[in-house]
Amino acid sequence: MIHLSAHPKILAGTTLLAWAVFWAAFSSAAPATALDFDRTRWGGVLETHTQAVTDMAGTRVDYAALARDPAWRRFVDDLARRSPPLSRSGRMAFWIDTYNVLAIDMVVRHWPVDSIRDVGSFFTPVWKLDAGAVDGRRVTLHEIEHEILRPMGDPRIHMAIVCASTSCPSLAREPFEPSELDARLDAAVGRFLDDPRKGFSVDRHEGEISLSRIFDWFEDDFEAAGGDAGGDAGGVAGFIVQHLKDTERIGEADRVWLRASASGARVRLFRYDWDVNAVGR
Fold it and tell me: How far apart are CA 58 and CA 194, in angstroms?
């Protein structure tokens, strides 16, 4: 007769051996690798569905095409399993690109709209609506900007995140690579300051500078970063003086005047154009 139950001593030995093999395999297994932002796919989206333009938007997005493209929905949904790296540059690059994706998607999901602000309401602005899932949880654009990026203490992020609007800084048409982040942020500031329609302009003869309202809304951020510019420039003026090296349009005479007199100049704020930065607008 065949006995289905093993001898007690054999059973005990077999069980211990099995557990030993299991724990050895478990303890030696490599930990699961977190998935960083998919910059390859994002770069493809930017190349295919955005256009560099000479008007004030700088970059326009084909929201209608994205709304028809099932690959876009899969890309956005895939953010739920993506996690920011541990390094500061990795986290900052991750959340800058993620903000830009989710701002675009907010427009895509409600297309056609004249402005991203039309998606929200007076009581619940679009910035505080559910923007999507990232790293396994729901996030808002407000959270990414004000609770994740701004506390990192680098006001250059305000020239890198784009709220789908004409007066926003122009959307970068390449992902933000962590290894190149510092240079990319400087370039973003330089591009914005170089646009006299929405970023910055100077009239030294009138003693006046014109600024984006971004510098007013986030003055405290620029104040913290602009104190070591030299001369009598501090705060926003100091930040601008620090980044004159990144501009191409501002001539040397203006640079000299700004270094010496920017903090005492009259300030005019550009009207902020919230029209969506869509292709064909």
Answer: 12
Q: Are strands 266-269 and 208-211 parallel, antiparallel or unpaired?
A: parallel
Cα separation of 126 and 124, whole Å? 6
What are the structure tokens assigned to 184, written together?
């990319």
86, two tokens: 């541990």
Domain ranges of the chain: 39-175, 200-269
Tokens of 43: 């770069």
Please state the φ and ψ torsions of residue 261, each to the nearest 5 degrees.
-130, 0
Round the CA-based radius of gyration of the chain to a whole number and report it. Answer: 25
Q: Which residue has the tokens 């680098």?
A: 154
Contacts of 185 (CB under 8 A, 6+ apart): 154, 156, 157, 159, 160
Classify each residue of 158-184 as buried b or exposed e, where b means 16 or more C-beta atoms within 10 Å of its C-beta: bbbbbbbbbbbbbbbeebbebeebeeb
Q: Are 46 and 173 in contact (CB under 8 A)?
A: yes
pLDDT in tens, 220-255: 999 887 544 444 456 899 999 999 999 999 999 999
Question: Contact at 8 Å (CB) between 200 and 262?
Answer: no
- Going by C-beta distance under 8 Å and a sequence separation of 6 or more, which residues neighbour residue 95? 84, 144, 148, 149
3-state helix, strand, coil in the chain (%, to 5): 50, 10, 40
- Phi and psi at residue 166, to the nearest 5°: -60, -40
Residue count (the chain): 281
pTM of the shown model: 0.86
Those residues whose C-beta lies under 8 Å from the C-beta of residue 125, and which sit 6 or more positions away, are 117
Tens digits of per-residue pLDDT, 142-177?
999 999 999 999 999 999 999 999 999 999 999 999
